[in-house]
Specification:
The complex is a heterodimer of chains A (455) and B (239). Chain A is an alpha+beta fold and 455 residues long. Chain A is 54% helix and 17% strand. In chain A, α1 packs antiparallel against α6 and α9 packs across α10. In chain B, α5 packs across α6 and α7 packs across α8. Classes of the chains: A alpha+beta (455), B alpha/beta (239). Chains A and B meet through α7, α8, α9 and β9 of A and α1, β12 and α8 of B.
Chain lengths: 455, 239
């Protein structure tokens, strides 16, 4: 919804911007039009100048040649009316223009039209100079406004502009609110879709086609999700099935080998061979169990028994189990728990977390047949607790280390088994992170970090 | 019935070869009366006619499942049942035990473990007295003799009585003698709580315990501290 608000705000602002730009453009266009229309009829001589050209010489009126050309080009006709109303002089006077005028006639045309001819008038001392243009060539209109209104024009113009802007913003807000309301279910639908919920939106209104497309996409996603789940399920079931089926024959291998191993009638060498068969069968059992667990963890089929787990107790317990289980003397396990780490609790599956730590310690033992010193450290800061297991042994092989640093999806099954893959999976389902590296002084270290549940 | 080996055992599994192996394992252990079935139907018939004293049961059977078969048996008698299943999921284990099975083992299994567990449940069912006798042991730590029945420590100097907490701690350590017992487990046993906050209390009780059982409490020989983990009781000799 936050992103929707952002979109809304941006929409309102841009709408207001558009309104203001339009206003400016219109204003500019108007000015341009006015200037341009003035240029269309360019009067080189206005009515005053032309009037001055007309002079009384020896009782008759005379006008210069250039003035006549100007009148001919830019107007149509001209005349001079004496104070008594009689035309004293004229040039190209049309037939429908009278030669005598009363006072009211003059008042009638002085600013407007004379028999539909647009006219310009200039007052001389003893007469009236009239220039006539072609009919229909000029539009005339008188402008009249109260003085007080004109006085405030500098206040009115900006006020109008501001008002325009405000109205534009208000309208934009109104429209965008309507738009927002119709977009809201769509946004919710997209959010739901991202979380893999099925989406069914109403397909009415202007956004109907969009909604129906979202519905279709969601349907497709749900179908794909279901197909993926079926496939994952099939794979896990298949692995579980295989590991189930292998158990009964393996029981017999292990059972008979174990009996032979303990048979006093057999030669010691044969009993030793039987012991190898038995111990290798136990390895197969462990591998099958690992494979089963890894596949269940990978496809989220492993039921989690979540509880509050005290990591310090868990670590001590695992270390004690290893030592009590008969750890050879060339190995040592040291547990170091910081003062803050003592009561560290995480929300998780105790059995799986124990498994992760056991796998790490077991790995150190398995890969260092000459013995090594193993150290498990638990510490904590405000938001994370870290649990590290390190040793001073041979360290991770470079290729193993490389593969362990790959993103989860790309990890490949290694020849060394599933132990570390399972560690990664267990950490992942506990929303933690895991880092593997070799130590400069020799040996390796694995650091598990978990978000803190409570203090 | 004089001992557990007189028990008649019914073995149920759909795999005849596995039944054969079970027979050989159990015969070697000393069980003589063994009958076997490969289906629910056969098992039901044998159960009715032979009245076995113990049952080893597979979960997956061709004509039904072991869980419901056990329920049927239990309606007729309190016969001890040990599940031997190829299903290792916790739910199955818990389901089996929840239904009242005496034990649940997963395949593949070690013959030794099977016979030990079987003997344990048969003893528990038919000879419980043997267990109660063994329950409260008496043992020696060097010169001191500890009697967990009376909760006393007897030395040449005289007899000392253990407090309730000291008794609980020593009992827990003795049950796991030779092994490390974490501070967490000791705390659970004595105070039914997490170790956090009890570290000093535990230390004080261990010191008092040492004063009673060790000839030289400041240099303990029997009740040892395992740094960072917990404590360990060594050198205990059963009397």
């Amino acid at each position: 919804m936050k992103s929707m608000m952002k979109i809304l705000a941006r929409y309102v602002l841009s709408a207001a911007g558009i309104a203001l730009i339009l206003l400016t453009v219109n204003f500019g266009a108007m000015i341009a039009w006015i200037i341009q229309s003035k240029n269309v009829v360019q009067h080189t001589g206005d009515v005053a100048q032309l009037s001055d050209e007309l002079t009384l010489q020896n009782g008759t009126y005379a006008i210069s040649e250039t003035a006549l050309i100007t009148i001919d080009n830019e107007y149509q006709w001209a005349m001079l009316i004496g104070n008594n109303g009689t035309v004293l002089w004229s040039f190209h006077l049309p037939a429908d223009v009278p030669l005598h005028y009363t006072l009211s006639d003059v008042a009638g045309f002085s600013h407007w039209y004379l028999n539909d001819y647009p006219v310009h008038v200039w007052r001389r001392t003893d007469s009236l100079f009239v220039l006539g243009s072609e009919k229909g060539s000029i539009f005339k209109h008188g402008i009249e406004a109260p003085q007080s209104a004109m006085d405030n024009v500098l206040v009115w113009i900006p006020a109008t502009l501001i008002l325009n802007g405000m109205v534009a913003v208000l309208l934009a807000l109104l429209f965008s609110l309507r738009f927002f309301r119709s977009l809201k279910p769509l946004a919710k639908g997209i959010e739901d879709m991202a979380e893999n919920h099925p989406v069914t939106l109403s397909t009415n209104g202007i956004l109907g086609p969009l909604a129906s497309e979202i519905n279709q996409t969601s349907e497709k996603l749900v179908r794909q999700e279901a197909a993926l789940k079926t496939r994952d399920n099939a794979r896990t079931t298949w692995i579980a099935g295989v590991s189930h089926d292998i158990r009964t024959p393996l029981s017999m291998v292990m059972g008979y080998a174990s009996q032979l191993e303990n048979d006093p009638e057999l030669a010691p060498a044969k009993r030793k061979q039987a012991q190898i068969i038995r111990s290798q069968s136990e390895r197969i059992k462990a591998l099958v169990n690992d494979l089963n667990l890894a596949s269940k963890l990978e496809y989220h089929m492993q039921p989690l028994q979540k509880d509050t787990v005290l990591l310090a107790a868990l670590l001590r317990g695992v270390a004690a189990d290893f030592i009590n289980g008969g750890l050879p003397d060339m190995f040592s396990i040291e547990v170091e728990i910081s003062r803050e780490g003592q009561n560290t609790a995480v929300e998780g599956d105790e059995k799986l977390l124990k498994r992760a730590v056991s796998n790490l310690i077991g790995n150190s033992i398995k890969h260092n047949p000459e013995g090594c010193a193993i150290k498990a450290v638990l510490s904590k800061n405000e938001s994370v607790c870290t649990l590290s297991v390190s040793d001073n042994g041979v360290g991770f092989r470079p290729d193993v280390l490389k593969s362990l640093k790959l993103p989860h999806a790309l990890i490949k099954l290694q020849a060394h088994g599933l132990g570390l893959t399972i560690v990664r999976q267990i950490v992942k389902i506990h929303s933690g992170t895991v880092a593997f590296h070799n130590l400069p002084q020799g040996g390796c270290e694995t650091i598990l970090s978990f978000p803190l549940h409570c203090v | 019935m004089n001992n557990i080996f007189d028990c008649k055992l019914l073995l149920v599994d759909d795999e005849p070869q596995l039944l054969e192996m079970l027979r050989s394992i159990l015969r070697k252990e000393g069980f003589q009366k063994l009958i076997a079935a490969t289906s629910c139907l056969e098992a039901r018939r044998l159960f009715a006619t032979e009245r076995p004293e113990g049952v080893i049961l597979d979960v997956t059977l061709p004509d039904g499942d072991g869980f419901s078969l056990m329920r049927e048996f239990r309606e007729q008698s309190a016969v001890p049942v040990l599940f031997l299943s190829a299903r290792d999921e916790d739910e199955n284990r818990l389901l089996g035990l929840g239904l009242g099975a005496d034990d649940y083992m997963t395949k593949p299994f070690l013959p030794r473990e099977l016979s030990l567990r079987l003997k344990a449940i048969l003893t528990r069912t038919y000879f419980p007295a043997v267990l109660t006798q063994k329950a409260k042991p008496v043992f020696r730590l060097g010169q001191a003799e500890i009697d967990l029945n009376s909760g006393t420590v007897s030395t040449k100097a005289g007899q000392l009585t253990l407090t309730a907490k000291e008794f609980t701690l020593l009992k827990k350590l003795y049950e796991n003698r030779g092994n490390i017992v974490t501070g967490d487990s000791l705390c659970r046993a004595a105070w039914d709580d997490d170790l956090y906050g009890y570290e000093n209390t535990l230390m004080v009780h261990i010191r008092r315990l040492r004063e009673k059982i060790e000839p030289e409490p400041s240099a303990p020989q029997y009740l040892l501290t395992v740094r960072g983990l917990g404590y360990k009781l060594t050198g205990a000799e059963d009397t």
